Amino acid sequence: MQTPAKLSARSAVRRDSAELLKIVMDEWDGESDLWVFGYASLIWRPEFEFSEERFATLHGYHRALKMWSHVNRGTPALPGLVFGLLPGGCCKGMVFRLPRARVADALSALWEREMPNAVYDPKSLRCRTSQGDVRALAFTLSRHSPSHTGVLSEDRYRQIFSSACGRYGSTRDYAQLTYDKLRTLGIHDSALGKLLQLVAP
Asked: Can you give the C-alpha Rg of the chain in angstroms?
């Protein structure tokens, strides 16, 4: 895949989901395995076959529950929230190696799940692992995107956690499953923990 700068330049023009998938496929060399960075539901429900997984740290982005979801975890009438990678800080997660022969099928399924609309900016980013750095496909979110929530009040988070639900379930369950899986991996997301305390019994 090409550098983040080239992918960012391509993504600067508003494109639909199918076009973004074609860009990623065109920029993959077709000869190498492809790494994918997971930082939320991809960690606990990857839904693709991979030949290797590693703990990874991505510098320059952080995990944030600040992306509107009108399909997967909410509806147009009652939007929910999903995680996005926002610029700044760092994010601990997992990278998954997709064997070359499975890349096309795996990305097609991944796009159907993660990109029903062109809400993310897919980028090839350098991830640090104990076995060496790898470049991985990561789903980032621009603060200028209409899908970015901006600052939400605690009351708004409570309302969303109590009510928002989409084709894959509720925002609250999604956030809790992500938090719990991160904890089992030894990754503590204090910001997410504080949000979940807002609706703790």
From this structure: 16
The residue extents of the domains of the chain are 4-197
Count of residues for the chain? 201
Q: What is the pLDDT of residues 14-24, one digit of tens each?
A: 468 888 888 88
The answer to whether 37 touches 46, Cβ cutoff 8 Å, is: no
Question: Is 137 in a helix, a strand, or coil?
Answer: strand
pLDDT tens digit sequence for 42-61: 999 988 889 999 999 999 99
CA atoms within 13 A on the CB side of 3: 3
For the question of whether the overall pTM of this predicted structure is more than 0.90, the answer is no
CA distance 134 to 173: 31
Architecture of domain 4-197: Roll (3.10)
